[in-house]
Amino acid sequence: MAAGPDLGPTRRGVDTLGLRDAALGMADQVAAAVAVGEAVTDLPDREEIANIVVAGMGASGYVGDVLGTVGDLFLPIPVIKAKGYDAPSFVGSDTLVVAVSFSGETEETLQAAEEAQAAGARLLVVAGGGTLARRAESWGAALAPVPAGLPAPRAAVGAMTVPVLIALERMGLFPGAHGWIAAAVEQLRRRADQLASEQSPAVALARRLGRTLPIAYGAGALGEAAATRWKTQVNENAKTPAFANVLPELCHNEIVGWGQHGDLTRQVFQLLFLRHDEEHPQQSRRFDALQSVLDEVVGGIHTVHAEGEGALAQLLDLILVGDMVSLELAAQEGVDPGPVPALDDLKRALDA
C-alpha cells in the first residue's frame, strides 16, 4: 500500500507506529480493500438474511458505526451493533453476523461470534488472523482478511469496513457500493493533499484547541459516527479526555447541563460541530441555536464541514480530518500517538 504524503520533519514529532502516514494514506487503503471484498467466498444468499449484526470492540467495532450510517440510507434490512460479549438473543439462521477483530483475539468478539455460530447464524469474519480467523475457517464462514502492515486497529478503518460493503453489494443488499467507495477515495485524496500542506486546517484547529477538552457534536447517524470517531481518536492518539454527543438528542438534555459554572467550562471545554450534507433540514437550525446558547459557556466553537459525494465519502472525510487533528494534538504536546499503555495495562490485569 502506498504511503501518504510526508508531513515533513518539523511537524512529524514522535510517531513510532507511523500513524500520520497511515491516516494520510487512507485513500490507498480504501481502494485496496475493494479487492479483498471481491475475493470473499461463502457468502449467503440475499433471501436468507433478514438482519445484520456487527460484533466488534473499539476501532474494530467501529465497522458497525460506518455500516449503520450507510445502512440508514441504503440497506433494506436493519443493522444492529453488538459491542460486548453476547450476541443479541434474536440472532438465528436469518442473521448475518459480521464479526470484526483486527487482531483476531478480542475476547468479547470471540464469545459473541461463538454464540452466533451456535445459534445458526451466517458469519462474515473480518480479522487479521488469530483465533477468530482460525475459527472462521473451521466454521466454513466467509472470511475477509485484514492485510498485514497496518500499524493499529484505529488506522485500519478502511481495510476493515470496505470489504464488508463490497460483500453486501455482491449479496444484493448494498447496490452501488463500488461507486460510493470510488467517490470516497477521490475525496480522501483531495483531503489528504490539503492536510499534508503547510496550511493544514488540522494544524490550525489543534492549535486553537490547545489543552482544552474537546466535545464533538454531530447530527443524525452520520454525525454521530463522526463525533464518536473524533472522541476516540483524541483519547487514543493524544491521550486526552474528549467527549461526543448527537443532535437532536442532546437538545433534549445535555444543553441544560451548561447552565452552571460558565467561569469553569469556558476554560476547560471547546465544542466541535461536525456538519454534513445528510442532515435533516431542522438540524441546521439546531446548530445555529446551539451556537447562540453555548457561545458564552465554552472556550470556542469550531465547525468542520464534510466534503465529498455521498454519505460514505462525507463520513470518511470527517474521519480523516479528525484523525489528523488528534495526531496534531499529540504532536504539539510531544506525545507519541502510537502506544496505548492504559489499554495494555488493563488487558494484563484481566489476563492475570
Strand content: 5-15%
General shape: globular
**What percent of residues adopt helix (DSSP H or I)?**
40-55%
CATH architecture descriptor of the largest domain = 3-Layer(aba) Sandwich
Return the average pLDDT rounded to an integer: 95
Indicate the structural class: alpha/beta
Strand order across the largest sheet: 2-1-3-4-5
Radius of gyration: 20 Å
Tell me about the largest β-sheet.
5 strands, parallel
**Strand tally:** 9
CATH superfamily of the largest domain: Glucose-6-phosphate isomerase like protein, domain 1
Number of domains: 2
- Alpha plus pi helix count: 14
Order of helices and strands: HHHEHEEHEHEHHHEHEHEHEHH
| Fold-level CATH name of the largest domain | Rossmann fold
Report the top-level CATH class of the largest domain. Alpha Beta
Distance separating the two termini: 38 Å
Low-pLDDT segments: 1-10
